Amino acid sequence: MAIARFWRETPRRYNLGGSRCTNCRTVYFPPRSVCPTCSTHRQSIGKLEPFQLSGEGEVITYSVVHDAAEGFEMQVPYVVALVRTREGPTLTGQVVDVDPHTVRIGLKVRATFRKLREDGRAGVIHYGYKFAPADSGGAAPAPRGPRGTAPVAPGPGAGAARA
Amino acid sequence: MREVAILGAGMTRFGELWDRSFREIGIEAGFQALVDAKLSSGDLGALYMGNMASGSLIDQEHIAPLILDYAGLAGHHLEAVRIEGGGASGALALHQGYLAVASGAHDFVVVGGAEKLTDVADTEANRIINSTADHEWEEVFGATLPALWAMMARRHMHDYGTTREALASVAVQAHEMGAKNPNAHYRNRLTLDQVLRATPVAEPLGMLDCAPLSDGAAAVVLGPLERARKFTDTPIRIVASQVACDTMALHHRRDLTTIDSTVVAAKRAFAQARRAPEDVGVAEVHDGFTISALLALEDLGFVPKGQSGPAFAAGQFALGQKLTVNPSGGLKAQGCPFGAVGVAQAVEVVRQLRGEAKERQAPATNLGLLHDVGGTGATSVVHLLERVN
Fold it and tell me: A40 with A94, same domain?
């Protein structure tokens, strides 16, 4: 992936920066410039403001992936889940720091800042959010995840809470 | 709007066609359809080609005039357009062809669909297929297309008690039909146990829950119904052609176990045709993954929400039942050359409605349904075809 293409999304991928419609108060992630909820979409243009997600949420479905997405080959088997956040938006992300087969629908999780994948041996390294069980130790350094997902920043939640 | 009929249909074998090029298979399907329609190329007004990713797969964009050229028609200077909508590309091309004839813009058009997925390594093909979901907010975070469908399966199992065995029964029936279809990629039968014990891809889905990567092409010839009798004794009328879209990413959907785009496209289609789901005798539905077929049966209105698993496992949609689902073997067994799928569904239902499907012929019916999906349901296309007696 071209460097600029990943770089321009870093506020979202590093810090869970979403948006909120000042008209109907609905929160979106990733941020939108038009509100799908407001009945007059056009009038919502310019009325969405930045909004910070807490990174806290709950697994609403998941899969244990064995045939990896590009760049995730070294992490199999890994868990990918849909996480409904406290503020409303649902996000797709890995669930780490957990035995893949203990993940369940309803598991409380918290966003954590991790290495997602590398663009080959010499390419850029992509960072972003993953999720870890919420009861896995607050601000303490996260335990080492599956191969290739070693923490590169302070523990669960810190990356999201800071911005 | 004029009434539109399918006058001819043709397709190549689906599978790993390593000895054949994209243009060869595209032309073969097109000429089969033209010969079947007893139409000469001079009568044609346009070509609409469904294709998902020729640029990534064979380093060739701009494929519609390419096929036209190698079909010997460059000198006719026809309109030729490629249409893309992920896995729904072929069905979208059929919709465009329908609109062109219905509107009177053209009298006779060819709708083709072609894809060459095995000219690249399967890892590369999978990367391209994953891009039919939201690359930046799904795949970048590790979600593959099978993983996204697997998450719908997981939620369906959680909400409705759907079993792993019910999912597997979709693959078993698909291969049963594939065994009867000389054009199918897979002609081997499967046992439930084989499906359940296959290598996991994205749990709960295994290798045999997923449609294969195939090469293949299919084509139909459309024309105004009022002139159809000149070409065929059994014109097949397109009584509905509807497209509906939804959010790109699965995580933005209203409900993880309902493809709303399918629900809406089906409602519009049945309204357009003034018919109901119970009138349909044969259906080709999207079964890119076993869960896809179960969701389709619910979303199209053939079975109440949550009940597709037990119904399918009990054989309610097998050959010979009131509604035969995927007599071709579907994407699972007939094969999944993305852009060709929606058109191949039309070819199969035309043959079924004409009573030409031989070993896999469904009981006599005059109404058939086609259902195709792009990505995880950002696009759904539903067509209803009727035999004109």
Answer: no
**B154 in A contact zone (CB under 8 Å):** yes
Fold of B129-212+238-387: Peroxisomal Thiolase; Chain A, domain 1 (3.40.47)
Tell if the CB–CB gap between A90 and B201 is shorter than 8 Å. no
| Domain boundaries along the sequence of chain B | 4-121+214-236, 129-212+238-387
Shared domain check, A155 and A112? yes
| Per-residue pLDDT, A160 | 38
Residues A104 and A119 reside in one and the same domain: yes
- Examine the domain organization and report whether A38 and A60 are in the same domain: no
| A48 and A60 assigned to the same domain | no
Mutation for A interface: B122, B140, B295, most A CBs within 10 A: B140
User: How does strand B4-11 pair with strand B236-245?
Assistant: antiparallel
Q: Tokens 């403001």 appear where?
A: A49
Q: Which residues of B105-125 are buried (b: 16+ CB within 10 A; e: fewer)?
A: ebbbbbbbbbbbbbbbeeeeb
B334-348 residues labelled b (16+ CB within 10 A) or e (exposed) = bbbbbbbbbbbbbbb
The answer to whether residue B143 neighbours chain A at the CB level (below 8 Å) is yes
Q: Is residue A8 part of a domain?
A: no
CATH T-level assignment (fold) for domain B4-121+214-236: Peroxisomal Thiolase; Chain A, domain 1 (3.40.47)
**Torsional sign, CA B174, B176, B178, B180:** negative
Name chain B contacts of A69, Cβ cutoff 8 Å.
127, 130, 139, 142-144, 147
Global pTM value: 0.94
A1-7 average pLDDT score = 80
Mutate to test the interface with A, among B127, B141, B156 (most CBs of A within 10 A): B141
Domain span including residue A89? 56-162
ipTM for the predicted complex comes to 0.96
B383: helix, coil or strand? strand
| Residue among B137, B147, B152 whose CB faces A80 most closely | B147
pLDDT per position as a tens digit, B88-129: 999 999 999 999 999 999 999 999 999 999 999 999 999 999
